[in-house]
Amino acid sequence: MDTPPxxxxxxxxxxxxxxxxxxxxxxxxxxxxxxxTGAKPSLDVVEGTAIVVVxxxxxxxxxxxxxxxxxEEDQQFEFDIPAGASDVxxxxxxxxxxx
Length: 99
What we know:
Order of helices and strands: HEEEEEEE
Number of strands: 7
Number of helices: 1
Radius of gyration: 14 Å
Helix content: under 10%
């Protein structure tokens, strides 16, 4: 299972988001870590397309201790779910795609 190119392109310019791919016997897992922002990503799946929204407004006040820094804008990532994927979930800020 390959990482969706739309997802790779969307996070390519972000240093705080990492994509890793692991294989456990016959199972493959793609994990996307949205970083130590304190934001909680949400996931919707519509007709084979995954839509992930990272709500930056949910950060705690400790995470926003930058003084006069403007709040970060929400991010939205859309990608086609890879063929053969059996599960797409978000848990503890990590998006996982498994087959």
